[in-house]
Amino acid sequence: MTERHEVPEGRAATGRRRSDGFDPARSPAAAGFPVAPDIDPEALRRRALDALVSARERTALLTDSVDDGELTAQHSPLMSPLVWDLAHIGNQEEQWLLRAVGGREALRPEIDGLYNAFEHSRAARPSLPLLAPAEARTYASDVRGRALDLLEAAPLHEGGRPLERAGFAFGMIAQHEQQHDETMLITHQLRTGPAALTAPPPPGPVDGGKLPDEVLVPGGPFTMGTSTEPWALDNERPAHVREVAAFHLDASPVSCGAYLRFIEEGGYRDERWWVPEGWAMVREHGLEAPLFWRREAGRWLRRRFGVTEPVPDDEPVLHVSWYEADAYARWAGRRLPTESEWEKAARHDPASGRSRRYPWGDEDPTPEHANLGQRHLRPARSGAYPQGRAPSGAGQLIGDVWEWTASDFLPYPGFAAFPYREYSEVFFGPGHKVLRGGSFAVDRVACRGTFRNWDLPVRRQIFSGFRTARDA
Ligand SMILES: [Fe+2]
Questions:
Q1: How far, in Å, from the CA of 92 to the mean position of ligand 1?
Q2: Fewer CB within 10 Å of terminal CB in the chain, N or C?
Q3: Does the pTM of the predicted model rise above 0.90?
Q4: Quick one: which H or E segment has residue 422?
């Protein structure tokens, strides 16, 4: 069974496969990927530098906030030791930026296998002869210094090699590091013991938090995916037109308070609401609430980054599997939105007929638009971020919680694997469900209106929530 974040790990493997025959210049997508017709190469260079620097600052925060014993411990069999993620980040950067882009020799060829996510399961990683914390930090920092030298001189123009064009490889590596930072934040959530991380609370709702319960998204065609976003990944491409019938969508993600009603009304004890695989999971593991929740003296508490607190009624529910989201929706007389519906609600502008990069427009996310980048360690309450709302009126589509959709992870028409099949293609099929919108733990470089995440329907340790829909 694939584990959560074997996914991004898979996205970044591996030099070994490349030496087995991958040639970026001969990739099937080389002729048209990526395309960034209007972006100045120097602006892209600055953007790549900023993205790499801010990813490394976050990696340092996540790995300097615990001692060496905690860095090398395995806090959950679902996760790697933090020190594995740290050296893996450096190793992927070395393979893609120093070797594939820069044509350099391997700095430490003997460690490639240790940090290949396809070679060792997470459960097996603590027993590998991993680099010690100080060694892993030095290695990652050495690679980074050389990568920044390469970035300074790399030709990022349209006629360049596909990996370098529009700075794609640099953007891909910044996204990869941020995805591992999210993985490491999940490890922080799973570890026991006192809090190692703190952050201020996110902003509260405005206008009394009064959003309608749901918004109407009109029927008709819209453009899904992208052919122009320079660092969009292969699975987001190409842009194509989809017909989506009118539907109603929750204006905000489902709250803990609403989810509590499902629990209190026996949702976890009633087979009617569950697909057979979900019901089997509930029975096998005795599930009765989201992960990290427990009932004590008649009230529900949850553990959040080392702190136990009452479940907050008005915050989006977090740490639910696809099966739980699907069961809740059925209990509520509704359903999960399809991936097309989600993206239409988030991007389609009925006034212009075009799809925006983000719900609020084409501008990159700011702290006023969305709860992203681990600035806060929890989702914001419903009604926050009014500047981030979509033309449909729906709020908090970007940031806060990953949102499960009804859809399987499948290629778009015209999909071409880039830079290698293990990035997305090997995960296509009915086994993985798509999540959209990113969470508070996702950085803006790894979050777009078109960004697609995927995971197994049983997965609960991820920062996952959902919203529901109904036909119009
Ligand atoms: Fe990875």
A1: 7
A2: N
A3: yes
A4: none
